[in-house]
Design goal:
Elements: H1 5-26, H2 28-36, E1 96-123, H3 135-138, E2 149-180, E3 186-196, E4 199-209, E5 219-221, E6 226-236, H4 237-242, H5 246-254
Parallel strand pairs: 1-5
Antiparallel strand pairs: 1-2, 2-3, 3-4, 4-6
Length: about 260
């Protein structure tokens, strides 16, 4: 049974409606939270243990073979210490250190492409064992055996793109040692929230550092962090205006144009 245009349109409408409904369900929790905060400033997050979060995953990296520490009972010098006094640098889970982020990043990229192609196809059958006159019996009478097929095509494409990026970040964030790896490296995690009026600016940083990269002032540079994850963003009334509505995001994904 053939499907008419009305049935096709109804099916497309059902698909689009289903996509919108699914997205609405996924964003329902966030929408309810925003509705509960109407007329109020955004709430700050509670201070909690990041290892108890549902999204937390312990870091697992390739480790060298364990080494047996050698002790020197007749020496006052402790291996790894920088002085005879207690080292104030972070060295165990729960200790705090400062991460210094001084990033000056710039990039420039230009790319231009050009492509063209021309095709021409001709087909003629002026003589075919005397059967060329039979073509008019199965083909239109205006057919000309000497010029049966003629096709030309031309394709041209040009593209250009330019990228010019200049970023500067200068901040200091306190982080906590949340895990000590078997080789002595530290897994750190830090989060900072600052609320100004109805806008919350949030900074997050995480990664793996070496104990030797911690300075005597208990600081570590961001470029010494392996697997670094640095995030700087915000949430609140200004961020809501800058963020496109989820309906627009859905259309951007599903529209082929």
């Amino acid at each position: 049974m053939p499907v008419n245009h009305m049935q096709i349109s109804m099916r497309r409408l059902a698909i689009v409606t289903g996509l919108i409904g699914a997205t609405a369900l996924l964003s329902g929790c966030n929408a309810m939270k925003r509705l509960s905060e109407v007329g109020e400033a955004p709430r700050l997050s509670a201070i909690d243990n990041p290892t108890q979060s549902e999204t937390y995953r312990p870091v697992s990296l390739p480790m060298p073979a364990p080494q047996v520490a050698e002790s020197n009972p007749n020496s006052l010098w402790r291996s790894g210490a920088r002085s005879f006094f207690k080292d104030q640098r972070a060295n165990q889970v729960g200790d705090i250190l400062t991460v210094v982020v001084d990033m000056q990043d710039s990039a420039a990229l230009a790319n231009t492409t050009a492509r063209s192609r021309t095709n021409s196809e001709d087909l003629a059958v002026p003589n075919l064992f005397g059967l060329e006159s039979e073509f008019t019996k199965v083909l239109p009478e205006t057919i000309n055996p000497s010029s049966m097929f003629d096709m030309d095509s031309a394709t041209s494409n040009r593209g250009s793109g330019t990228l010019d990026r200049n970023e500067a970040i200068d901040l200091r964030v306190a982080a906590i040692v949340i895990q000590v790896l078997p080789n002595g490296n530290y897994v750190i995690h830090g989060r900072q929230e600052i609320r100004v009026n109805s806008e919350v600016r949030e900074v997050q940083i995480a990664g793996v550092i070496r104990a030797a990269d911690i300075s005597s002032s208990n600081e570590v540079e961001y470029d010494k962090i392996a697997e670094a994850r640095i995030s700087y963003g915000g949430r609140g009334t200004i961020s809501d205006v800058q963020q496109p509505r989820y309906g627009s995001e859905i259309m951007d994904v599903i529209l082929p144009f």
